[in-house]
Design goal:
By secondary structure, the chain is mainly beta. The protein is built from five helices and 41 strands. The two termini are 27 Å apart.
């Protein structure tokens, strides 16, 4: 067997560090570790196989043994639930919700806390080993789930191992690797009809994996396209019941992913990846009314909200007898933004052109002994230029600006198995240093942040079917950077603010329990947490019409319960699932000046933009119709509680029902799919131009999906 020796390893490690500087100049690729390729069992669990995760960065672990609030969704589970995007996924995660939707490619989410659309994301997003970060604008990656092996979701602060604090949690998307020994392929095509749309939705996607040199080199290509017909109308002036244009908010999404996997020695994996995705939508996700859905005062102009992102990544993993070395390098570049028509003949345009180079180098233990550890370093160099323009008759305002960051971090965690692994203490720490600046025509405002985060965890695993843990962990969120116009608007409203806010920090105290019965047909997860925010950043209403800003204004506490139940019932093929979050989130202290100007922001008041509860029920039924024909189905009800917004308006609770019903014959399947079957319109986030303005769910959509899968 060919094996990479330590002398060559030293050379490779030095070469990897030298390549970092070159990559910053010439866009060198990066991506995932060998452990990330551990196969995941179905998310409901089984008696034959444990679900495997790699979120701890110390190698593959059984989900049951991981002392974290964590969920895993296998590729098969995602398909049967018709989960095709991050937006679909959040309804299955306790405490997760959509905070704001600018367009189909610019959506914001949060876990266990409030959300604003500016600033770095409170959730860390990882595409394999690569962070997806848009500086000072925390959108989620618009990924397609066709070629997803599994998704791991970590709830609560993950400030020791992941990203720029990851104060709310982490989403890790594990994509499929090229096969080194056989040809694999997958294909799907879909057509559907949305209520109110005057055309069909359609799309297709596929994947092909080919071994170029058996056991040494493989190539995988995947991607697809979708075209969704518009279902909202446009009025050139105010709404009068007779639209001037119909179905104007059509959407498109294209992506392609190319992965090369090289295994020159048995203990070395090199994974190079190119990923390009283009989400595009006419007009935006915000309408003047959600029921009926329409835009008004467009003056015959067309709006848009388009995006284009390119990610290059290169990950090298070397396994030695006692430890594993992983180097992950990536470069993300994109352009996305909106153009909103304004009556009588103007527009507001805001375009972002982010770039982010990232490098992580880590070493983790890989023995079967009681000591487990991981140490590493990370570096990021990013910028987030914005091109903003407001054009009206006789008025032309440009507010271009840029946010730049250069940050680095050192991190590590160590644990030790006591009493044959029944008690496991863990300690983790991360030190983060950021040089960040805001630049516009008025000059530059530099800031520095030095933040230390930590995690303490004590696990108790008396049997293979019971895990309990208590933990205390800290996280942070880098300070939001905002324009001088926003600062001036807040000053007019009596709110003290600055161009660069102070970082927001959080401390989470948690008790977790995972239990399953001996035959593993019933799985229960319970998490009780107390999450304290300090220097909380949030959106505040400004004194200039339609110009709001952000401020550090005080502290808050969230007390919550996460519950997960999965039951493989005695009726063969029938599985039931429930996930939910219930919380009480309130302000503890508020800057007295802000409290006087903003009555909603006061001690004891409800935390803005946080759902008091959300939950989802799933009924999954599979059975064999004949020896080679199988029926599969899933019905889900997802509930989102009410939301108090900074404007003082409250979004009412809403429910969404979805259905998947299909048959599978060997490697092909045909399914009926339905989303939002009750045609719920919302709004799910309220605008300021009327009681029905804002964003809402896509109206009821029903269609057919055909798939072929040899994997």
């Amino acid at each position: 067997m060919k094996r990479f020796n330590s002398g060559i390893a030293l050379f490779a490690l030095v070469a990897s560090m030298i390549s970092v500087d070159a990559a910053a100049q010439s866009t060198v690729p990066a991506e995932k570790s060998q452990q990330s390729r551990a196969a995941a069992a179905p998310a409901s669990g089984s008696a034959e196989q444990d679900i495997i995760v790699t979120a701890s960065k110390t190698g593959a672990q059984a989900l049951q043994d991981v002392p974290l609030a964590i969920q895993v969704f296998s590729g098969e589970d995602l398909r049967e639930r018709n989960i095709t995007s991050v937006g679909d996924l959040v309804s299955s995660v306790p405490g997760a919700f959509e905070g704001f939707r600018q367009s189909n490619g610019s959506r914001f989410y949060n876990l266990r806390g409030n959300v604003t659309q500016n600033g770095d994301s409170p959730i860390g997003y990882y595409l394999d080993d690569t962070p997806f970060i848009v500086t000072n604008f925390g959108i989620a990656p618009p990924v397609r789930f066709l070629d997803m092996e599994r998704v791991e979701v970590l709830r609560g602060p993950q400030g020791t191992l992941y990203g720029q604090g990851s104060s709310g949690g982490v989403f890790i998307f594990h994509t499929r690797d090229p096969s080194l020994d056989k040809v694999e392929y997958a294909f799907e095509a879909e057509g559907s009809q949305t209520v109110g749309a005057h055309a069909l939705n359609y799309g297709s996607a596929g994947a092909l994996s080919v071994p170029i040199i058996k056991d040494r080199l493989g190539l995988r290509v995947s991607g697809g396209f979708s075209r969704d017909a518009g279902w909202a109308d446009a009025y050139f002036g105010p709404y009068d019941g007779t639209p001037d244009q119909k179905g104007v908010n059509g959407a498109k999404n294209d992506d392609i992913r190319v992965v090369a996997l090289i295994r020159p020695w048995d203990n070395v994996n090199i994974r190079a990846q190119y990923w390009h995705f283009r989400p595009r939508q006419n007009f935006t996700g915000f309408t003047a009314s959600v029921d009926p859905p329409y835009f008004q005062n467009t003056a015959g102009q067309n709006g848009f909200s388009n995006g284009s992102f390119t990610l290059w990544s290169l990950t090298t993993t070397v396994d030695f007898d006692a430890f594993t070395v992983t180097s992950a390098t990536s470069n993300l570049e994109g352009v996305f933004g909106i153009n909103i028509p304004l009556s009588p003949a103007g527009s507001f345009s805001s375009q972002f052109l982010p770039k982010m180079f990232a490098q992580e180098l880590r070493v983790n233990s890989s023995t079967d002994g009681p000591l487990h550890w991981v140490v590493g370093a990370a570096y990021q160099d990013g910028k987030g230029p914005q091109v903003n323009a407001l054009t009206l008759p006789g008025l032309n305002i440009n507010a271009d600006n840029n946010t730049l960051t250069k940050n680095w971090a050192l991190f590590g965690e160590i644990s030790y198995d006591l009493f044959d692994g029944k008690i496991v203490p863990l300690v983790g720490v991360r030190t983060y240093h950021d040089k960040r600046s805001f630049a516009d025509s008025g000059g530059s405002v530099p800031t520095k942040a030095n933040v230390q985060t930590w995690r303490l965890n004590l696990s108790y695993l008396p049997t293979d079917n019971l895990t309990m843990f208590v933990s205390a962990a800290t996280g942070f969120r880098p300070g939001i950077v905002q324009s001088r116009v926003q600062v001036q608007s807040l000053a007019l409203a009596g709110v003290p603010a600055s161009v660069a806010l102070s970082p927001e920090s959080s401390t989470n105290y948690e008790f977790g329990l995972k239990w399953r019965n001996p035959d593993r047909s019933l799985n229960v997860g319970l998490n009780l947490y107390l999450l304290q925010y300090t220097n909380l950043q949030t959106s505040v209403t400004g004194g200039i019409n339609s110009v709001n800003g952000f401020a550090n204004f005080g502290d808050a506490t969230t007390k919550g319960v996460d519950l997960e139940v999965h039951w493989d019932t005695p009726l063969t093929g029938l599985n039931l699932g429930f996930v939910g979050n219930f919380n009480d989130s309130k302000y503890d202290s508020v800057n007295s000046v802000i409290a006087a100007a903003q009555p909603l922001l006061r001690p004891g008041a409800r935390l803005l933009n946080t759902l008091s509860n959300n939950y989802r029920f799933d009924i999954n039924y599979n059975r064999d119709i004949s020896s080679n024909l199988k029926l599969f189905s899933n019905v889900s009800l997802s509930h989102s509680g009410d939301r108090l917004q900074a404007s003082g308006l409250t979004v009412q609770p809403y429910n969404l029902i979805a259905l998947t019903l299909g048959v599978r014959h060997n490697n092909w399947e045909l399914a009926l799919i339905g989303n939002n079957l009750t045609d719920e319109r919302g709004p799910t986030f309220l605008g300021t131009t009327g009681p029905q303005s804002g964003s809402g769910p896509t109206p009821r959509t029903i269609g057919l999906r055909f798939r072929i899968n040899s994997q």
